[in-house]
Amino acid sequence: MKLLGKALRVCAFAVLAGSLSPALTATAAEKEAPKDIVLKGDAKCTSCHDENDSPEALRIGKTKHGTVADKRTPSCTNCHGESEKHVKEAGRGSGPTPPVDVGFTKKNKTTSAEAQNASCLSCHQGGKHINWQSSVHAQRGVTCASCHKAHTGHDKVREKETQTEVCFACHKEQRAQVNRPSHHPIPEGKMSCTSCHDVHNDNPKQLMGDTVNDTCYSCHMEKRGPFVHNHQPVTEDCSICHNPHGTNIANLLKARPPYLCQECHSHESHPSQAAGLPTGRTTSTSALGTVGRGCLNCHTNIHGGNSTQNSATAGRFRR
Question: Which residues pair with 305 in a beta bridge?
Fold first, then answer.
């Protein structure tokens, strides 16, 4: 009887232990399961890429992409792919860890520019980015990550004061021009590259307007006209006479008058005499050349005139 009672107690304990083990196992699993740190479902990545390994990656919580309350907020895998091989091999030490399905680093050679941009455009395809695929930047293999930093709270290209640092990393000629004496107030922080350029669009020169003039007229409305007497280069293209990024000559002119004017106007006689000094002492205005004379001294309304005077000189853009 004693042996039978002892056997019954052992069986009862085994049954009780078996009934409790699932609960105990589940509790242990819950304790061991990694928890999300920033984004919903990011535990798959942040179990390795935590604040010790990749603190810069966790800064995404300070950006629009880290707004957990917004249902549109993506997770790590929405942008970088499921990356199963990367997850399985991470930390094994058996060799180089396979890269993620979609990588965005500058040195990344495993993900094409098209694949990188496709990941961003899966959300950002509409609006201002509708024509991105046909833009100059896209056609030349520029990626969204070349300019934007999705994991950082301060995206330099979105701030007027720091945007030029990003643009000038590639556009070095424009950086030199902007630092010339006559320039738009870009170095002063009153304007930025995107004041004139829509870098996501496919307009000529990626301008904000459909043409050069439309872009310029958004600020310089007094030059738009219509005038009674239109100066043809003005109505055609402002950049015929002006370099918008900067020059060494006042008013962003490409050359000094009268040299600039004589690129179009004949220099056989006044009003476009050949540039040079008089050959001797003279009081004739027809032989003064460029001494003490500038075209704009007389032709002050060079962008267009509204003179209604009935004379042969009415259309010469004088005051």
Answer: 229
Take residue 126 and report the two structure tokens written for it: 């509409």
Per-residue pLDDT of the chain (319 residues; tens, 9 = 90+): 454 455 545 454 444 445 545 544 545 445 566 788 888 888 999 988 888 888 888 999 989 899 988 888 999 999 999 999 999 888 777 778 888 999 987 666 788 999 999 999 999 988 889 999 999 999 999 999 999 999 987 889 999 889 999 999 999 999 999 999 999 999 999 999 999 999 999 998 999 999 999 999 999 999 998 898 899 999 999 999 999 999 999 999 999 888 888 888 865 656 556 666 667 776 666 666 556 567 888 888 899 988 887 676 677 787 6
Residue 43 CB burial class (10 angstroms; 0-12, 13-18, ≥19): middle
Contact indicator for 208, 218 with CB cutoff of 8 Å: yes
To the question of pTM greater than 0.85 for the whole model, the response is no
How many whole angstroms separate alpha carbon 184 and alpha carbon 215? 14
